[in-house]
Amino acid sequence: MRKEVKMWGEFVFNEPYEGQDIYQINEIDLPISYIEFMKRHNGGEGDIGNTWFRLYRLEELQELNDNLEIDKYLPKHIIIGGCDGELYGINADGYYFNVPEIIEEEYLTLLGNDIEQLSVQVNKLWD
Q1: Which pLDDT belongs to residue 6?
Q2: pTM, full prediction
């Protein structure tokens, strides 16, 4: 079993992403490590320990962020996942974050800048 799969508990990854390269959402660069991770897994969902967690497919991100009007409510942020009233994303500086679905920046919590450790950081948030 691969290292990231162990860290991700019972999370079930999707098939690898094989579409056109996506490097930006709302004119914000996606971190190279996130793009490479998504090329291998393209999101998925499951129990990661302290919560159920979902990472959206790479090809769904632009429409999702447009529908949520993220560029209006959280400029320079991109939503990449969510579950149970919580959203998860990446800011323009490459840091992952959590924010409640009410999408107010004052409630935003940074979760580090390593996609491979995101499940660990999410679990710490809900500990």
Answers
A1: 56
A2: 0.90
- Give residue limits of the domains in the chain: 3-125
Alpha carbons within 13 angstroms on the beta-carbon side of residue 23 total 2
What's the alpha-carbon Rg for the chain, to the nearest Å? 13
Cα distance between residue 24 and residue 35, in whole Å: 10
Question: How far is the C-alpha of 54 from the C-alpha of 9, rounded, in Å?
Answer: 13
Longest CA pairwise span in the chain (Å): 41
What separation in angstroms does the CA of 14 have from each of 10, 27, 61, 99, 107?
13, 25, 15, 24, 30
Burial degree of 21 (CB within 10 A; 0-12, 13-18, 19+):
exposed
Q: Which class would CATH give 3-125?
A: alpha beta
Alpha-carbon gap, residue 90 to 75, rounded angstroms: 11
